[in-house]
Amino acid sequence: MKLTVLGNYGPFPGKDGACSGFLLQDDNTNILIDCGSGVISRLQRYLRIEDLDAIVLSHLHSDHSSDMYVLRYEMQIKLMLRSMAKPLEVYLPETPENYYKELDFHGAFNLNTISEGIQLDIKGLKFTFYKTVHPVECYGMRIEKDGKIFAYSADTTYTENIIKLAENSDLFLCEANATENIRSKSKPPHLSVKEACDIARKANAKKLLLTHFYYDEPKENYKKDAEGEFNNIELSEEFKQYEI
Ligand SMILES: [Zn+2]
């Protein structure tokens, strides 16, 4: 599998940035995981919308889903002009209901709801979903193919479920929105860098890739918090590709 980071900011992209969005590819499979602001534009550097097999949304906070609300227009047009034969498959939580309903838009998407523990096979990639602790219904995911494991925390505060999700993963993409500096002033519903490292250690993850950065927080603060906490760690970079 190959992961391309399309956007790694949250909850706001800042100048020239994009919020959460990750393209997961394998052979002829193209799956978009999360679809925050700026993601759909960047996705088109790599493929056409027609080439997407599915979109998986961890939750319906706007920094993970807002571009779906413009993609629905384009899907409506593509279906009308018959440049696509069928709606896009979308996997997502069923709440908050008002956001979910807005995606039920003129047949643009085929909506499939996800829940704790369910397993899905999306073109040979085996997904398992784990509920996280967040203000809205949210799922992290573990994705397996040919003995390789990719794990994504989605948004969460500290929970044992994420340790299970990341167990023995080859690549663990984990949100670490809160630096110690941010934590000293506020308590966002997110993991800190140190917590992400703690989870990666307990899960025996091979590599930890951090994401969901606050745009106005210096990257140096994220790096400083990570020092000595985990042996194989990287701050994710937009447009960078990671082999799994
Ligand atoms: Zn969120």
Automatic annotation (TrEMBL):
UniProt-listed InterPro entries: Metallo-B-lactamas, RibonucZ/Hydroxyglut_hydro
Chain ranges of the Metallo-beta-lactamase domain: 18-195
Pfam families, A to Z: Lactamase_B_2
SMART domains documented for this protein: Lactamase_B
Annotated protein name in UniProt: MBL fold metallo-hydrolase
